[in-house]
Amino acid sequence: MKNYAHFKIFFLVFTFLSFYLVTTDTHAAAGEQKRVEKHEWTFSGIFGHYDNAQLQRGFQVYKEVCSSCHSMNYVYFRNLAEEGGPGFTPEEVKVIASEYTVIDGPDDFGEMFEREGKASDNFPSPYSNINEARASNGGAYPPDFSVLAKARSTERGFPWWFVDLFTGYQEQGVDYIYSLLNGYKEVPEDFKLQDGMHYNEYYPGNQIAMGQPLYDDSVEYADGTNATIKQMAEDVSAFMMWAAEPKLEIRKKMGFKVAIFLFVLAGLLYYSKKKIWSRIEH
């Protein structure tokens, strides 16, 4: 019994220390990827929803900063006016689309031609092909923004991976993007950075080909919001989440209705079973 008591004490101490070490926010050493923390988003949780003002600011950041390198091939201009989106009007969408030049064709002579964008067009790529994109970015290919927020994931570690099984944590990708955009730091003295690379606390290996894209006041927000790096990173990350999950609000509303229906159905089935079996028991 005495040995068993010592074992319990050892187990409790070991569990406490393990939990403390994995949940305490510590600074990563040079050359180690810093753990991505969960950010608070309006679209998190069962009743989460997109903030239209935030999505419009995020679109402005994408248009003025990110679109020069990153495509968004699976998003159409008309999506900006759909339910659950940034909340632009159809007239505003037409104006936004008209600011882009789209390659169309072939015409009657078999030639491709340029024209003004329409609401039915998808966002055009800044490059003609992958080789041009790589040549313009030192050999690195800028990923498409359409589904990037859903394609990325992070390792949250114990105990959070266990909690995620029950909470349905779905914002890993957007948390990673937000952290990455805020992760550009000065190169530590004991870290050897390769030529053409940039130091980032959250990127695996801490070396990333993309230079820091956001600086304070990189854009002048139409709504007057102070354009800090954190604010722009949050806004464009939320916009990327919407691009990857444009029907999120509709899906959550439908899911809540289905949950209520199943709850009522389960109650009816239970009382029906009780009613039927009560006759047999008697």
Structure description:
Helix 2 packs across helix 8 (229-244) and helix 7 packs antiparallel against helix 8 (229-244). The chain contains nine helices and four strands, in the order αααββααααββαα. The chain starts with a helix and ends with a helix. The protein is globular. It has helices spanning 2-23, 52-64, 90-98, 130-136, 148-151, 160-167, 172-181, 229-244, 248-281; strands spanning 101-104, 113-116, 198-199, 207-208. With 282 residues, it is mostly helical. The protein is 44% helix and 4% strand. The longest helix is centred in the C-terminal third of the chain and has 34 residues, at 248-281. It folds into two domains: 30-75 and 122-246, Orthogonal Bundle (Cytochrome Bc1 Complex, Chain D, domain 2), CATH 1.10.760.10; 253-282. Strand 3 and strand 4 (207-208) form a beta hairpin.
Keywords:
single chain, 282 residues, mainly alpha, Cytochrome Bc1 Complex, Chain D, domain 2, 2 domains, two-stranded antiparallel sheet, 44% helix, globular
What is the CATH topology classification name of the largest domain? Cytochrome Bc1 Complex, Chain D, domain 2
Structural class designation: mainly alpha
Tell me the distance between the termini.
52 Å
**Count of alpha/pi helices:** 9
Overall CATH class of the largest domain: Mainly Alpha
Q: Strand-residue fraction?
A: under 5%
Major pleated sheet? 2 strands, antiparallel
Helix content: 40-55%
**Total number of β-strand segments?**
4
Q: What is the gyration radius calculated from CA atoms? A: 25 Å
CATH superfamily of the largest domain: Cytochrome c-like domain
